[in-house]
Amino acid sequence: MSAQLTPRTILKKQIELLLGAQMVDVELDVEHLDLAIGIGIQKLRQQSDGALLEKDIFLHLTRNITEYTLPEEVQEVRRLYRRGIGGLTGGGVNFDPVDAAFANIYMLQPNRSGGLATWDLYNGYLETAERVFASQINFTWDVNSHKLTILRNPRGDEEVSVRVYARKADDDIINDPYTGPWLMAYATAKAKYMLGEARDKFPSGFAGPNGNVMFNGATLKQEAQVEIDKLEKEIMNMVTGSDGYSFIIG
């Protein structure tokens, strides 16, 4: 029984076929294809949210400890906030607005006084309480060392929620419906450019029985550069991301 092919192996085979393998001789090794795919993944990780996964992780704060190391997969930290209202003492009041909605007499009996207006006012009260009692925690994040530094000294143990952008695995990027097609096109263009560089080292061609055999190195490089420029512009246009544009004026 043959071994199951990985997404990267399948992608390398597809790139070879797109470059004309099995019809013409493609002078690229597996290392060149891996390099082209790696460059494409690095470009996505640098410029596209499609290579990231937004999620919440939980961090246990310890009394008088302000520096914590997060997992390697974490690339950016967006927010750090308590799961309840109160000081950094392990205390506070936890509130689940979904559970409370079922128990709220104004929601269950909207014909009486109050109704949704009271519910909206209560949520406004919670937002104000969060600001007053510092529900969100200020921090600094070092992406290179993966160090998260709390700007306040915790006065007690507490479990907090951390909203992060975590790196997707390479195979997940290849299989993703947004980043996968872009990565295939970009890696193919990079491989084509490397192939053009190799062939362009012999501008006069090789001697053959009917004269010199000319290579298409310059043409390959020109075509590849046009494709690369087009694909890099697609990243700026959010083609590879799942969030799309935020509100824009102008």
Explain what you see:
This protein is α+β, with helices and mostly antiparallel strands. The protein has 8 helices and 8 strands. The protein has a 3-stranded antiparallel sheet, with no helix packed on it. Strands 2-5-4 form a 3-stranded antiparallel sheet, with no helix packed on it. Strands 7-8 form a two-stranded antiparallel sheet. Strand 4 and strand 5 form a beta hairpin. The C terminus is likely disordered.
Measured distance between first and last alpha carbons: 59 Å
Supply Rg: 27 Å
Mean of all residue-level pLDDT scores: 79
| Helix share bin | 40-55%
The assigned structural class equals: alpha+beta
Order of helices and strands: HHEEEHHHEEEHHEEH
Number of continuous helical runs: 8
Low-confidence stretches: 85-93, 245-250
Biggest β-sheet, characterized?
Answer: 3 strands, antiparallel
Strand-residue proportion: 15-25%
Strand order of the biggest β-sheet: 1-6-3
Shape: elongated
Q: How many distinct beta strands? A: 8
Structure, briefly:
This protein is an alpha+beta fold. Helix content is about 40%, strand content about 20%. A three-stranded antiparallel beta sheet has the order 1-6-3, with no helix packed on it. A three-stranded antiparallel beta sheet has the order 2-5-4, with no helix packed on it.
Features:
250 residues, alpha+beta, 3-stranded antiparallel sheet, 8 strands, 42% helix, disordered C terminus
SSE topology sketch:
Elements: H1 7-18, H2 30-47, E1 52-61, E2 67-69, E3 74-82, H3 97-103, H4 105-108, H5 116-132, E4 139-142, E5 147-150, E6 158-167, H6 170-175, H7 179-199, E7 206-208, E8 211-213, H8 217-236
Antiparallel strand pairs: 1-6, 2-5, 3-6, 4-5, 7-8
Helix pairs in contact: 1-2, 1-7, 2-7, 7-8
